Amino acid sequence: MNAFSSSISRFAASEFFHNFRHNSSAILGSAIVVMFAVMIALGPWLVAQDPYDVAQLELMDSFKPPVWLEGGTSQYLLGTDGQGRDVLASIVYGSRISLFIGVAAMLGSCLLGTTLGLLAGFYGGRLDSLIMRIADIQLSFPSVLTALFLMSAFGTGVDKVLIALISVGWVVYARIVRGSTLRETQKEYVQAARVSGLPNRKIILRHALPNVLTPLIVVATIQVGTFILIEASLSFLGVGVPITEPSLGLLIKNGFDVLFSGLWWISVFPGLFIMLIVFGINLLGDFLRDELNPRLK
Where are the domains of the chain? Predict the structure, then answer.
């Protein structure tokens, strides 16, 4: 307990926490991220309706406007869609899918890209050329277009979306890690470790990997928001998650069909939630970039 308290005290007195407390953008971004995390964790207890339980739907309540408009009710604060689903409840459940996909795809991309980048930078030669040429070819295509092509080949589903996003997201990690690893392998302590007979695996894990973690944290934070947007684009185009596992992108698509009939709330509110969560993640990512980059000090 004393060790834990000591760690908390050191963190509270650190320059990082001091800068965080005096950075309004970082505080706002963190508040938004925490709000969404709580909403996702406590989702079923925050809303009265499970929008995907048919037994809880009532068609007579379809197309109810938000509570502040004429015809709105306090039961449905943000209105309902064509099947009587509470828009707020749909956003809560849809946010869980969207954020899960964003975080899981980021972790998968980071793991794959970091591994390939370490191998390319440490061993060099043909392996390095092969990995980097694949990365260069992939970077010549827009990420959304590549993901769209993969989804058309794999089909819809959360697992398919994750595969597609990881396939387009690993490149940035591989390039960053390769560059950092190339610099580290030229330093004397790495050369000394090689001469002493330390296995390559231990050199990579003990010396190369710790020195690339800082830029990876920044990229990973921002990439969560990017993946949420890509997934929303795929679902809006009808090749993302299925109807049984709706995300915010699919909610926007469902509301777009009636958007010009005056039923704007069905798609506008999910769109605003996507904008808000990506905005918060980017604010937090910008703060981490400034704090963890020694060149900006």
Answer: 43-296
Going from the C-alpha of 93 to that of each of 65, 77, 113, 159, 196, the distances in angstroms are 20, 16, 30, 18, 55
If pLDDT is split at 50, 70 and 90, which confidence band does 211 have?
Answer: confident
Do 178 and 133 contact (CB within 8 A), yes or no? no
What the block records as the tokens of 12 is 């509270």
Quote the pLDDT of residue 279.
92
DSSP character at residue 187: S
Phi and psi at 86, nearest 5°, equal: -65, 125
Measured distance CA(61)–CA(81) in Å, rounded:
9
Q: Which amino acid is at 53?
A: D
**Residue that is written with structure tokens 């007979």 in the block:** 197
The secondary structure of 235-273 as a DSSP string is: HHTTSSS-TTS--HHHHHHHHHTTGGGT-THHHHHHHHH
- Alpha-carbon gap, residue 133 to 118, rounded angstroms: 15
State which H helix or E strand residue 219 sits in.
Answer: helix 213-236
| Total residue length of the chain | 297
CA distance 177 to 109: 13
The model's confidence at residue 130, banded by pLDDT at 50, 70 and 90, is very high
User: Which residues 6+ apart lie within 8 Å of 23 measured at CB?
Assistant: 287
More confident of the two residues 231 and 5: 231
pLDDT tens figures, 222-280 = 899 899 999 988 888 888 887 777 788 888 888 887 877 888 888 899 999 999 999 99
What fold, for 43-296? MetI-like fold (1.10.3720)
Encoding tokens for residue 215?
């830029």
- Secondary structure element (H or E) that encloses residue 199, with its range: none
Report the pLDDT value the prediction gives residue 49, as an integer from 0 to 100.
Answer: 79
Task: Kindly report the backbone phi and psi dihedral angles of residue 286, in degrees, each rounded to the nearest multiple of 5, phi listed first.
Answer: -65, -40
